[in-house]
Amino acid sequence: MNYPVWNVSFLGSGLVVAIIAIIHVLISHIAVGGGIFIAVAEWWAGRQADGERVRAFLHGFVKYFLIYTTVFGAMTGVGIWFAIGLANPEGTSLLIHQFVFAWATEWVTFIGELTVLYLYFYGWEVNSRRMQLLLAVLYAVIAWLSLFVINGILSFMLTPGGWTPENRDIAAGFFNPTFLPSLLGRTLAMLVLGGLFAMLLAARVEDGLKERIVALAARFVLPAAVAMPALAVWYWFALPEAAQTMWLDGATGVAGGRLEAVTRYSLLAVITGALIVIGTLTFAARPRAVTRAAALAMLVIAQLGVLGGEFFREMARKPYVIHGTLYSNGLWQAESKSPATLDAPYFEAARWEPPGIAPGSPAHGEWIYRLQCASCHTLDGYRALDTRTRVWTPAFGERFLRDLAQQGVMPPFHGDAADRAALAAWLISRHGTPVTAAEVDAAAPAEVKR
Question: Which CATH class is domain 333-448?
Answer without folding.
Answer: mainly alpha
